[in-house]
Amino acid sequence: MSVEKGRPGQSFDDFLDEQGTREETTERAVKRVIAFQLAEAMREQRVSKVEMADRLQTSRSQLDRLLDPDNDAVTLAVLMRAARAIGRDIKLELV
């Protein structure tokens, strides 16, 4: 694996734009953060994976895919359902 070098003083966003990967990188980062926050909230509330799967009316293997930070196939609707199942909301905003 080679290391890409940018220009001195270049922002990370500029670098990602130059590489053509900004959108994909941002989407992956957001999904990873939400998956982490869902797992943390489950841990704080002592909600097991079995119980969470029951709340979502799905299987434990489906829940594992939802909580997998590398699984990019999870939709926003599913993430929002999972958040509501533990009494949370997902807040998105345009900046």
| Overall outline | elongated
CATH third-tier fold name: 434 Repressor (Amino-terminal Domain)
The termini sit apart by 34 Å
Count of structural domains: 1
Estimate the strand proportion: under 5%
Keywords summarizing the entry:
95 residues, mainly alpha, 434 Repressor (Amino-terminal Domain), 5 helices, elongated
Describe this structure in words.
With 95 residues, the protein is mainly α. Helix content is 59%, strand content 0%. The chain is built from five helices and no strands. The chain has helices at 12-19, 22-44, 49-55, 60-67, 76-85.
Short description:
With 95 residues, the protein is mainly α. Helices cover 59% and strands 0% of the residues. It is elongated.
